[in-house]
Structures are given as C-alpha cells and as structure tokens.
Design a protein that fits this description.
alpha+beta; two-stranded antiparallel sheet; two-stranded antiparallel ribbon; elongated
Length: 79
C-alpha cells in the first residue's frame, strides 16, 4: 500500500468547499487550484510538518506499508 498516493480531503481557504489532494502533494508543499472557485492553495499551509521546518522531500508515510505488512505477519503467526 502506497500511503503517499492516498487521497485526503482539504478545505479551500477561500470558498471552504472540499477538494481532494494526495498526501504526497501535501508533503511536497505543492500548490493546487480549487476546482470550485479557482483559488490557488499552498498545501504547505495544510501540512503541520511545514511549520516544523521539515525538509520538503520528507515522506512521513514512506515505509509504513512495509511496517504494516510486518505487523500483519506477526498477527497471523500468533493465530
């Protein structure tokens, strides 16, 4: 499972309607255009790591799918 390509909902800062973006777009601090009102939205404002000065190439979910696989393997061995 690639969490970086998972869709998440954010609210437009202007019209307050929801739009769908990828987690990777948020972690890469890209700018997207609201499909409802056309406002350009800086996704860095929606990323808490941006306020913590995390590097732009930081992928917080990178490797999480392997970890989940390991957990599931351990669970299946206990059954």
């Amino acid at each position: 499972m690639d969490f970086n390509n998972q869709d998440v909902l954010i609210d437009c800062t202007q019209c307050k309607k929801e739009l769908v973006v990828k987690i990777l777009e948020i972690t890469n601090h890209t700018t997207v255009k609201c499909p409802h009102c056309g406002k350009k939205i800086d996704l860095a404002e929606n990323d808490p790591s941006a306020r913590l000065d995390a590097p732009k190439n930081y992928l917080p979910f990178d490797g999480l799918d392997q970890y989940i696989d390991q957990v599931n393997q351990k669970r299946s061995k206990k059954k």
